[in-house]
What we know:
There is one protein chain. This protein is about 55% helix and about 10% strand. By secondary structure, it is of the alpha+beta class. The chain has one domain: CATH 1.10.630.10. Strands 1-2-8-5-3 form a five-stranded mixed β-sheet, sandwiched between helices. A three-stranded antiparallel β-sheet has the order 4-12-9. The longest helix is centred in the middle third of the chain and has 32 residues, at about 220-250. It is globular. It starts with 9 loop residues before the first helix and ends with a strand. The relative contact order is 0.17.
Amino acid sequence: MTITVDPTAPEFRYGAIGLFSRLLREQPVTPLADGGVLLCRHADVAWALTSHDVRRPTEWSVGRKPEGPFRDFGRNNMISMNPPDHTRFRHAIMPAFSRKRVEALTDFVDRTCEALIGRMRERDSGDFIADFAMPLPVTVICHMLGIPTEEENLLREGSGAMLAGLEIVATPEEFARATAGATALFDYLSAVVRAREQSPGDDLLSLLVRNEREHKLTRDEVVWAIITLLIAGHETTTHLLGNGLLALMRHPEAMRRLREEPGLTENAVEEFLRYDPPLYVLFRQAARDVRIDDTAIAEGTHLMLSIAAANRDPLHFESPDVLDLGRANARDNLSFAAGRYLCAGHALARLEGRIAFQKLMSRLADIRPARDPAPREGVMFKGYHDMPVSYRWAG
């Protein structure tokens, strides 16, 4: 019997890992209730992320949004674009994410982690998301953009509202908040761009302003690019940190191993990304007629790519449901996409994750959940609104 999946159903939203395991066994190419196709295997998802037979469904995505700034964002963010616009945007921002620039942030990330953990030291419990996982990447991306830290609340709240509005299960209320958030961010950052034109620096925002002058980006595109980087620059890392710590708390033997073998931290971050990725699904569209196994997929068909399923494909990862910090091929995870759509900030997120877990494991002892964390309600983005924890100071 053919399985048909509705991605808005509770089974998909709240029991996705169990559903993906079943689909990987029984039906890795799965029809969706809306006529689309869900891809689960690592090989199929990797193909869809890199093939010229597949494109991003920009118009479908834009059409779901209400008129206004949030819809404008849908047309003007690099995450939704196809070449040649995507290529133009990527060339404009990639110099800021070169290996040299990312490595130069090491000391800043280290100091920021120390400061956040220092504040956590003043008590023996707290909310890991609010105390550490959220402020770390927000502080880092604001530093990169050259935006004052006192504006972090505006940036965090606006980007959070927009992220909720990107979900396929977004409600009218969430769309309204996303539109308000997009308006506030666009207005604020437009003023910052005007000021930076008069006094440029060596930050990422100044780099984008210079690209505007070289006619690579329009003024509005500069602002939307900044908003895209703001959202992508901290949400993924926040949930990498939260999902990773939760996995360690649920697997005390893995936490003990990481404390005893700090050299594993870099690979552990890859395993966290594989085991419980911040992004569960991505959307694509067939650019021409294609066939996967016995399934014919017509041009224009919407494809849902399950990153979470691909990361647990037993054909690619041995014992995929086991959290193995020493897994040899953990970096094969697809959590940052692949090919020309590889996340521009993947190296920065990995740097933040490595330094954060090294600091957390060496400074805090006996970390455990104080209660169950509050999960996000969406389909695409997976993480937690809060994560109450208790701990002791280790040194």
